[in-house]
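User: Let's play a game. I give you a shape written as C-alpha cells, and you guess the letters that built it. Ready? Here's round one.
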C-alpha cells in the first residue's frame, strides 16, 4: 500500500510543478499524460510504454505509433517489459494482474492473477523463459512462462518492492524497495547471496551493467550508488535534495566512462558522462529514463513522465555543466 501512496504523492507533485521547460523535445502520442513505465526493445528500435489501462508501441526512429495492447487490464498499467527476443511483452497493473502479450499480434498469451498487491516492476529473464515481478505488498515472484506456474516467492522484503532485475547472464536476481536494501539472489537455487546496504531511504530503481559485475541504484535519499559486486564496495553520488525515481546505464564495453542518466521527482533529468553533465528540466516527475542507441553517436534518451507523457530528448539540446 505504501507504493500506492507514493504514486498519489507523485501525482500531487505533478500538479504543482509549473516551471516551463526550454528543451527541444519529441513527444510520443499517448492518450494519457501519466506514463508510469517504458521499455526499449533489445535492438533499440521499439519503445513500449504504459498508457492508462493499455500499452502503446512506438518506433524510436520515427516516433510513429506501431500498435496498442488493449483489453488486458481493468485499471492502470504500472510497469512493462519486452522479452530479449522481442516476441513477447509483459505488463503489470494496479489490478494485481500480470499480462503476457504476443508482440506481433498484440493478443493475450496468458494472464497471471495470483498476486494480491499492485504489480510495481517486471522483467524477463535473459533466456526468455521466466518473468520476475514485484508487488506493492512486499513479495516478488519468479514465474515459469512455459510451465505456466510460480517457481519461487521472495519474501525477505519488509516493504513495497519498487524495482527488480536480472543480471545479463541470468545468474543473479536483484530486488529492491522501500526497506532501503537491495537483495541479490542466486537464480539457480534462489538463495540470498548478499544484501547491499547503502541507501537511507526507499530504493526506486536498479540496473546491472558492465556485464553484471556492477549495479547502479537510486532512491529517495537523493543518491546514486554504483556497486562493485565483485569487490563488495560502492561509490555514492549525491544530487540535489530531490527523490531520484529512475536511472539507466549502458551495459556494453564501449561505455568505459559509465555514462548514465537519472530523473527526479521535480522533473530534473541529468546525463552524467566523461566530461561533465547534460541537464534538462521538465514540467512533471520523471518515472523512467532510457538511453537510446543512435547511429550518429549523439546521446538521445526517452523519458516517461507523470504529467507530460513520453518524451524523447537530445543531449545537444540540454544544458552542459561541469
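Assistant: Ready! My guess for every position:
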Amino acid at each position: 500500500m505504501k507504493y500506492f501512496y507514493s504514486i498519489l504523492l507523485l501525482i500531487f507533485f505533478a500538479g504543482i510543478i509549473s516551471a516551463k521547460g526550454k528543451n527541444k523535445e519529441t513527444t510520443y502520442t499517448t492518450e494519457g499524460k501519466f506514463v508510469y513505465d517504458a521499455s526499449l526493445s533489445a535492438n533499440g528500435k521499439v519503445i513500449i510504454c504504459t498508457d492508462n489501462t493499455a500499452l502503446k508501441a512506438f518506433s524510436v526512429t520515427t516516433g510513429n505509433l506501431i500498435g496498442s495492447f488493449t483489453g488486458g487490464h481493468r485499471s492502470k498499467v504500472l510497469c512493462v517489459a519486452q522479452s530479449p527476443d522481442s516476441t513477447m511483452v509483459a505488463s503489470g497493473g494496479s489490478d494485481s494482474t500480470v499480462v503476457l502479450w504476443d508482440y506481433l499480434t498484440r493478443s493475450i498469451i496468458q494472464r497471471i492473477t495470483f498476486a494480491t498487491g499492485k504489480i510495481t516492476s517486471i522483467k524477463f529473464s535473459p533466456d526468455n523463459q521466466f518473468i520476475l515481478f514485484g508487488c506493492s505488498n512486499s513479495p516478488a515472484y519468479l514465474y515459469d512462462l512455459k510451465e505456466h506456474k510460480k517457481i519461487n516467492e521472495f519474501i525477505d522484503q519488509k516493504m513495497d518492492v519498487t524495482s527488480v532485475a536480472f543480471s545479463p547472464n541470468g545468474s543473479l536476481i536483484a530486488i529492491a524497495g522501500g526497506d532501503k536494501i537491495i537483495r541479490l539472489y542466486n537464480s539457480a537455487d534462489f538463495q540470498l547471496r548478499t544484501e547491499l546496504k547503502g541507501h537511507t531511504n526507499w530504493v526506486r530503481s536498479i540496473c546491472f551493467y558492465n556485464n553484471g559485475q556492477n549495479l547502479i541504484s537510486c532512491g529517495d535519499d537523493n543518491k546514486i550508488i554504483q556497486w562493485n559486486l565483485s569487490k563488495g564496495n560502492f561509490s555514492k553520488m549525491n544530487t540535489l535534495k530531490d527523490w531520484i525515481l529512475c536511472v539507466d546505464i549502458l551495459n556494453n564495453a564501449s561505455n568505459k566512462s559509465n555514462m548514465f542518466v537519472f530523473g527526479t521527482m521535480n522533473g530534473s533529468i541529468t546525463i552524467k558522462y566523461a566530461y561533465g553533465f547534460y541537464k534538462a528540466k521538465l514540467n512533471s516527475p520523471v518515472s523512467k529514463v532510457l538511453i537510446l542507441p543512435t547511429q550518429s553517436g549523439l546521446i538521445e534518451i526517452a523519458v516517461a513522465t507523470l504529467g507530460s507523457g513520453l518524451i524523447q530528448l537530445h543531449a545537444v539540446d540540454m544544458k552542459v555543466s561541469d
